[in-house]
Amino acid sequence: MSAAAITTATKRTPVFFISHGGPNLLENQDKPGHFYNWLGNYLKNELKPKAIVIISAHWQGQGNDGVFVETSEKPKLIYDFFNFPRRYYEVKWDHRGSPAIAEQVVDLLKKSGIKASGNKHGNDHGVWVPLMRAMKSNPDIPIIEVSTFEHEDMEMHTKMGEALAPLRDENVVIIGSGSAVHNLSTLWTYGDKPSPKFVHDFDKDMENIACRFTSDERNNLANQLDKHASFRKCHPTAEHLVPFHVALGAAGSDKGKKLLQDYYSTLSWGSYAFGLPEDTTLPTYDGSQASI
């Protein structure tokens, strides 16, 4: 490998899959809060990316093979959650978008045979809640939201990630924002009881795929998660899972690392990074720091 190629490889940004939660995440001081403290610090002080491209579980495309890309200079905040205290519906954030990078995202998707179009949609809570929890103030790093497909085809979402992967060579961070396990219909059935076995089983198998395999082997295993025995118990619909597939597609041959493991009822906070440098310092969730 040439010196130029080595330099390019070392500068490639990591990819993330995050479990985002509702607007109360903004005040969370438990394990998820510690994780987002770390993520914000890592983004702003270590990576300093040119932009963040984030695929949200809360925005679906149109038709069998079409996706949307947010193109606003200043995306509005969408308060797409219900029955929360009024203060969450009055939140403002000093963030911005980038029409130029959004158009670049559209072009990359189109070149890969994916129908993509710009849309002044705004940022839903799958984008602004986790990133605002991570970075309370963010006037400098543009955020470009991308929808998932309208359908649940996991292979197509993996290919979408592959199409976006070249952005990593331009100091753009790619994030899939969903939830490792997301079943709100049974959330209060289990309530404060320990999460049921099927939640742990699915989460652990997801971790094995993310962290023990790479490249096509990892993608192929992930694309079969809809056949998992606990799939529909964990994901009545797959919109919170497929951002994981986009992240895997963008990650390519980079190794995965689980950053956060936490559960509440039929939710899992499982979050991952792919392609982190070996000396990256991560939170241990007791206030100290540890290197991977």
UniProtKB/TrEMBL annotation:
Q: Which SUPFAM superfamilies match?
A: LigB-like (SSF53213)
CDD domains (alphabetical): 45_DOPA_Dioxygenase
Instruction: State which residue ranges cross the membrane.
Output: none
Cofactor list: Zn(2+)
Alphabetically list the UniProt keywords. Answer: Metal-binding, Oxidoreductase, Zinc
Query: Does Hydrolase show up as a keyword for this record?
Result: no
The family database entries (Gene3D superfamilies) matched by this protein are listed as: LigB-like
Q: Which parts of the sequence belong to the Extradiol ring-cleavage dioxygenase class III enzyme subunit B domain?
A: 16-270
Q: Which InterPro entries match?
A: Extradiol_dOase_DODA, Xdiol_dOase_suB
Q: Which domain of life is it from?
A: Eukaryota
Which GO MF terms does the UniProt record name? ferrous iron binding; oxidoreductase activity, acting on single donors with incorporation of molecular oxygen, incorporation of two atoms of oxygen; zinc ion binding
**Family, per the entry?**
Belongs to the DODA-type extradiol aromatic ring-opening dioxygenase family.
Q: Could you tell me what this protein is called?
A: Extradiol ring-cleavage dioxygenase class III enzyme subunit B domain-containing protein
**Species this protein is from:** Mucor circinelloides f. circinelloides (strain 1006PhL)
Give the classification, highest ranks. Eukaryota, Fungi, Fungi incertae sedis, Mucoromycota, Mucoromycotina
